Amino acid sequence: LGAPQRYVQGRNATKEIGKYLTDCNNILVIGGKRGIAAIQQDFENSCNQLKINTHFELFQGECCEEEINRISTLVQKMKFNGICGCGGGKSIDTAKCVASINNIKCFILPGIAATDAPCSALSVIYTKEGVFQRVEFFSKSPDLVLMDTQVIVKSPVRTLVSGMGDALATYFEAEQAFLSDSMNCLNGKSTLTGQIIAKACYQTLLQYGMQAKISNEAQAITKQFEAIVEANTLLSGLGFESGGLCAAHAIHNGFTAIKETHSMLHGEKVAFGLLVQLVLQNTPDQIFQEVLKFCKAVNLPTNLRQLGVEKVTDEQLMLVAQIACAQGSSIHNHSFNVDELQVVDAIKLADLMGQ
Ligand SMILES: [Zn+2]
To answer: Which family does the record assign (predicted)?
Structure first.
């Protein structure tokens, strides 16, 4: 089981950031323009009170070797003993890489609750042109993940909903990986704790998802909103990493090869990938309908048209299936064998059921 050293969440949580930057007196903060603007004032005030030096550096937009090396050089030159990644996923992933290379503390302040990546001990590395290169796994989880809900509530509603799509798959993937005794994302076997967290994630979504979405539309930090920020980030983060992945994420990976889906967010593709997984695993109709109803209620895509694919060819579906079924893919974590033709047909059925 992996988890961040500390998880903090709440309205204006950034105002207290200083006390969580343990053993650090010289901090580098990286993020995009908006990510930095959202926290800079509160971050600096808190650090000034505790005599912690801060330096804000604009992130260049891609988590690639070039940017990781540039930030690493900065860390060595200015002797930072902690790095903070704020805003979107790519600056966060870069901060994790730089912390690992330089063996310094790693603090994460997401500006959105759009995926379950912040708590994990992995980064996705791209080329500087933005093409997926590899996943880098670290021996340590972040020292801190801090979710300032005053910042998150101002982010687009679509990002919170996409985070719910990512979190929706967590329980079903973790359960299937557990049943087949597969490896989790920490290269170990799933724990009972991981399974219970994944289950709590699903229950929280069903209970508070709709009200959280409306809260976000009203920019209101309600208990329901807080619950979903936690489900998307902490419950789903621990659930996927310690529970394991299966078909939903593999099918997501397949869809990244279809250019019509490029405007869709990670969790939106994962949500449809989950419907396909539920078909593959022959889930009882009652559960399928429960998931489908939730997706429709919060406006997650449930068919190919909503994923941006108006007209799909068998060749395109085969391409998705080939990537999803590639050697080493998480689709092989199910207790049953999955082949490409099964995936193509499951997509067709999920697409029709989700109309
Ligand atoms: Zn995901």
So the answer is: Belongs to the iron-containing alcohol dehydrogenase family.
How far away, in angstroms, is 209 Cα from ligand 1 center?
Answer: 17
Question: Is 334 labeled as catalytic in the residue annotation?
Answer: no
pLDDT digits (tens, 9 = 90+) for 53-64: 999 999 998 999
**ipTM field:** 0.99
Residue 1 in domain: no
Please tell me whether residue 120 adopts helix, strand or coil conformation. coil
pLDDT over threshold 80, residue 131: no
Please answer whether residues 125 and 131 qualify as being in contact, where contact means their C-beta atoms are separated by less than 8 angstroms: no
One domain, residues 218 and 337: yes
Q: Is 93 part of the annotated catalytic residue set?
A: no
Segment 266-314, tens digit of pLDDT: 999 999 999 999 999 999 999 999 999 999 999 999 999 999 999 999 9
pLDDT at 90 over 90: yes
Q: Ligand 1 centre from 267 Cα, in Å?
A: 6
DSSP 219: T
Reduced DSSP (H G I as helix, E B as strand, rest coil) percent helix, strand, coil of the chain, to 5: 55, 15, 30
| Closest by CA position to 112, among listed 92, 98, 96, 82 | 92
Whether 252 is a known active-site residue: answer: yes
Are 259 and 340 members of one domain? yes
Residues 6+ apart with CB under 8 A from 309: 258, 260, 261, 316
Its domain, for residue 135, covers: 7-152
Q: Are residues 195 and 282 in the same domain?
A: yes
Domains held by the chain: number: 2
Question: Tens digits of per-residue pLDDT, 139-188?
Answer: 999 999 999 999 999 999 999 999 999 999 999 999 999 999 999 999 99
CATH number, domain of 28, equals 3.40.50.1970
Query: How many angstroms separate the alpha carbon of residue 191 from the centre of ligand 1?
Result: 20
Please check whether residues 121 and 162 belong to one and the same domain: no
In the residue annotation, 332 being an active-site residue is answered as: no
DSSP 244-262: ---HHHHHHHHHTTSGGGT
- Is 2 inside a domain boundary? no
DSSP state of 190: P
Which pLDDT score is estimated for 130? 79
